[in-house]
Design goal:
Number of helices: 9
Order of helices and strands: HHHHHHHHH
CATH superfamily: Ferritin, core subunit, four-helix bundle
Number of strands: 0
Strand content: under 5%
Bound molecules: hexadecan-1-ol, fe (ii) ion
Number of domains: 1
Length: 241
């Protein structure tokens, strides 16, 4: 009896259209979307301001970093349109709190001139998080949001790539700081994912799939930076211990 009752609740939580996609008009979808959409809008807004800060830390690349930052503003506008299209009001106070710890760590690093930490937070962790979320979302999004997200995810690789190249070129002098910053910030990404995984599930986004996609983007970029397998394993373990 118990099993039947809980199955019923789950079906009610995730209404599905005949095509296997979620019912984008259901109250449960719109409720979950109000938080996920806000998180993405806030994430793009933070990314914009982080790239402007990075332009101050690396003045020799300031034009490129400002150009990357402007892309984030466009992404933000695109995701605002996705919310409007579904008649959903994004829950911005939720999203501000959601990002606050990572935001404070970025600012603290910026104020101390820790370029490595800033690049790890924005270009490696946040961009890998965005890439994984967007890949999974594209498979289950409404047609309007799917088109927008497909365009956005291509740009996110350019952002990841910027950080990757800088860290690769400076690896000898920044490895220690990179490891330390990773230990402090990767666990935040893990708890942020935990915090939205229930809402993501309602959007038909599977948590394990999200983690898998994240690990692919994150580990690939560490490999590209020039870390060896043992160092990458040690860094990835910071998410679980
Ligand atoms: C940097 O360009 C953008 C930063 C955005 C970070 C967003 C992370 C989103 C995690 C929420 C999981 C579900 C996502 C759904 C996608 C619309
Ligand atoms: Fe973006
Ligand atoms: Fe980005």
């Amino acid at each position: 009896m118990q099993a039947l009752a809980s199955t019923k609740i789950e079906l009610e939580q995730v209404p599905t259209s005949p095509d296997g996609l979620p019912d984008f008009t259901s109250d449960s979808y719109k409720d979950a979307y109000s938080r996920i959409n806000a998180v993405v809008i806030e994430g793009e807004q933070e990314a914009y301001s982080n790239f402007l800060d990075l332009a101050k830390l690396i003045p020799e690349h300031s034009d490129e970093l400002i150009r990357l930052g402007k892309m984030e503003k466009k992404h933000m506008n695109g995701f605002c349109a996705c919310g409007r299209n579904l008649a959903v009001k994004p829950d911005m106070p939720f999203a501000k709190t959601f990002f606050s710890k990572l935001h404070n760590n970025f600012l603290e690093a910026f104020n101390s001139g820790n370029t490595t930490t800033c690049l790890l937070i924005q270009c490696i962790l946040i961009e890998s998080f965005a890439i994984s979320a967007y890949h999974v979302y594209i498979r289950v999004a409404d047609p309007f949001a799917k088109r927008i997200t497909e365009g956005v995810v291509q740009d996110e690789y350019l952002h990841l790539n910027y950080g990757q190249e800088w860290l690769k070129a400076n690896l000898d002098s920044c490895k220690k700081e990179l490891m330390k910053a990773n230990k402090e910030n990767l666990p935040l990404i893990k708890s942020m994912l935990d915090e939205v995984s229930k809402d993501a599930e309602i959007l038909h986004m599977d948590k394990e799939e999200l983690m898998e996609e994240f690990m692919i983007a994150y580990q690939d970029s560490l490999l590209e930076i020039g870390l060896d397998n043992r160092e990458i394993a040690r860094m990835a373990l910071a998410a679980v211990i």
